[in-house]
Amino acid sequence: MRLAIIAIALAACQSSDVSRELGARCDSSSECDDRCLMPSADWPEGFCTIRCETDVDCPEDGACLEEEGGVCAFSCVDDLNCQFLGPGYACKERDARGGAGKRMVCRGT
Fold first, then answer.
1. Which residue from 40, 70, 88, 106 has the least number of CB within 10 angstroms?
2. Contacts of 4 (CB under 8 A, 6+ apart)
3. Alpha carbons 108 and 53: distance in angstroms, whole number
4. CB-facing half-sphere around the CA of 1: CA atoms within 13 A
């Protein structure tokens, strides 16, 4: 019973779904709904994302970053929140779009 409760709690923390809109691996923008952040140290194996001006332009678990003219990334609290993206991702602080402070997001290690 205790293990079942822990499993449910972990599943709730990892509710982010990788999609062509946000988080799917890619080598070109044709593999994404909007654009591909090409494979690099920042985006291991590529990262599908969408353009944004504020956090509300991003999917539910996303944050709008001041990069590449404004792109969404998955929000996180710690490195465990980024494990669903695979090896090479960690939770890091980045500038929010439009001078809206800082956001913790999943990025390459």
1. 40
2. none
3. 22
4. 0
Structure tokens at 78: 């710690």
Strand-pair partners of 107:
90
Q: Which 3-state string (H, E, C) describes 21-79?
A: CCECCCCCHHHCCCEEECCCCCCCCCEEECECCCHHHCCCCEEEECCCCCEEEEECCCH
Residuewise pLDDT in 10s, the chain (109 residues): 443 333 333 333 444 689 999 999 999 999 999 999 999 999 999 999 999 999 999 999 999 999 999 999 999 999 999 999 999 999 999 999 999 899 999 999 8
